[in-house]
Amino acid sequence: MNPIKKLYCRAYQTVLRLALPFLPYRKPEILTGTDQLPPLFHQKGIRRVLLVTDHSIRSLGITAHLEDALSAAGIFCAVYDKTVANPTTDNVEEARSLYLKENCQAIIGFGGGSSIDCAKAVGARIVKPRQSLSRMKGILKVHKRLPPLIAIPTTAGTGSETTLAAVITDSQTRHKYPINDFPLIPRYAVLDPEVTRTLPPHVTATTGMDALTHAVEAYIGRSTTRETRADAIEAVRLIFTDLDAACANGGDMVARSGMLHAAFLAGSAFTKSYVGYVHAVAHSLGGKYNIPHGLANAVLLPTVLETYGAAAHKKLHQLSVAVGLSRADEPHAVGAERFIHAIKDMKWRLKIPDTIPEIRREDVPELARYADKEANPLYPVPVLMDAKELEQFYYAVMEESR
Question: Which end of the chain has fewer surrounding CB within 10 Å, N or C?
Answer without folding.
Answer: C
